[in-house]
UniProtKB/TrEMBL annotation:
GO terms for cellular component: plasma membrane. This is Cation:proton antiporter. Residues 186-308 form the Na+/H+ antiporter MnhB subunit-related protein domain. The keyword Repressor does not apply. The keyword Transcription does not apply. The chain crosses the membrane at residues 23-44, 50-72, 84-102, 149-168, 189-207, 213-235, 247-268, 288-313. It comes from Solemya pervernicosa gill symbiont. It holds the Pfam family MbhE. Residues 9-72 form the MrpA C-terminal/MbhD domain. It is found in: Cell membrane.
Length: 320
């Protein structure tokens, strides 16, 4: 019943976002949609996915969309084409998605191939081979290390694309001591009290992913969110003194190099690429060390790219 209620709210939020022409309201509705999705994932016992959706979808994505909205117009302009063409595109896409799920197994079906072959392999042999209590981390960082490396490279590439298309500009608004909201004493005091706990929590999520929900993706976003809060309260100039834009590109590349370097070391040690057992005499200890290193690389890259995108939007002037 709870899942059906959440799905109903998701449908209502989607329809409201489609019908609204106030883009600020649409961004807020998208944030609500992401939050409801995170609650739905929690209801489905997908804690790690819910954590990621809350941090990325409801958190930093909302801030980035508001930053982008600041550069354009608040209200949607009437399109030159009619409503028929978008309706046809949505209908065809929706029909294709529904058709693609017709032969998929039902949720929780014990006879599905995943539950018959893949899941038992990870559940039964994962503790002995990887030794990580959090099965999600073991799968993503060890068994699916190739895929996670690809996702990290995609994030790095997205950051490079933003730099090439928009760049990070300097201007009067990026001088130290200038804040968009003025000298708000209460907000400054609250931010100073919150930011140490935000950064501490990000470190906890980064290095506790072996035992609970978390890891490099979530920790990188949370760490970047702390600097975004600092930027909004104290001004972009002060933030750029703490984390210069030129340093972010190097950090993003460093994260990918850390991840790939672990795989190169495994090859040089006579093992397969990203076989963490080559990092220590005890294979399980090597798995722990390898997961720690690759998650650190992911966290550094995600933090750098998220803050780079925010800098790229916040440093630009509003359209005339």
């Amino acid at each position: 019943m709870l899942d059906m209620v959440l799905l109903g709210f998701l449908v209502i939020t989607s329809v409201a976002a489609i019908r609204h022409h106030d883009l600020f309201v649409v961004v807020m509705l998208f944030g609500i949609y992401s939050f409801l999705s995170a609650v739905l994932f929690m209801s489905l016992d997908a804690v790690d996915v819910a954590f990621t959706e809350a941090a990325v979808g409801a958190g930093v994505s909302t801030v980035l969309m508001l930053s982008a909205l600041r550069l354009t117009y608040r209200y949607e302009q009437r399109p030159k084409h009619g409503r028929l063409i978008p309706l046809i595109v949505v209908a065809v896409t929706g029909a294709a998605l529904i058709y693609g799920t017709l032969d998929a197994p039902l949720l929780g079906d014990a006879n599905s191939p995943a539950n018959q072959h893949v899941a038992p392999r990870y559940i039964e042999q994962g503790p002995q081979e990887v030794g990580v209590p959090n099965m999600v981390t073991a799968v993503l960082a060890s068994y699916r290390g190739y895929d996670t490396l690809g996702e990290t490279v995609v994030i790095f590439t997205a950051g490079l694309a933003v730099l090439l298309l928009l760049g990070i500009r300097e201007g009067p608004q990026t001088r130290p001591g200038r804040s968009a909201i003025g000298d708000q004493v209460v907000l400054r005091m609250v931010a100073k009290a919150l930011m140490p706990f935000i950064f501490l929590y990000a470190l906890y999520v980064q290095f506790h992913g072996d035992y609970g929900a978390g890891g490099g993706f979530q920790a990188g976003v949370i760490f970047a969110t702390g600097f975004v809060l600092y930027d909004l309260i104290f001004g972009e100039g002060d933030t750029r003194l703490v984390v210069p834009p030129r340093m972010l590109a190097r950090l993003a590349a460093l994260g990918v190099l850390i991840y790939g370097g672990v795989g190169i070391y495994s090859l040089l040690a006579g093992k397969n690429f990203l076989d963490y057992s080559a990092l220590a005499q005890d294979p399980v200890a090597g798995q722990h060390l390898g997961i720690l290193l690759v998650e650190l690389g992911v966290g550094i890259t995600v933090f750098s790219v998220v803050l780079t995108i925010f800098y790229a939007f916040s440093g630009r002037r509003r359209m005339p």
